[in-house]
Amino acid sequence: QVQLVESGGGLVQPGGSLTLSCAASGSILNIRRMGWYRQAPGKEREAVASILVTGDTNYADSVKGRFTISRDSAKNTVYLQMNSLKPEDTAIYFCNSQALSLTITRWQDYWGQGTLVTVSS
Known about the structure:
seven-stranded mixed beta sheet
């Protein structure tokens, strides 16, 4: 199996910055995509950003120009640098990974437990 652990959430003022980290561990054979989703109270989960093994990235329109996703393949870690944060960015942010494991040899989505980001003055 693959385990994902997020960190870096917290309270930040509007206009501030925060960086989230997600480290994947376990019997990992390969990872082809890692990304971030978020869910605000009373709203559905939405995709925020993703990065492929090729390095290609994708962002939600609402965060383009403000958020940057990056990865350290050697450490199986993905980061989300969030700048110019707005109150509407407040949500639980979940790390997602599409990976192969030694025991489940098919691409499968794995999820972290989430880290809370609160943007408020």
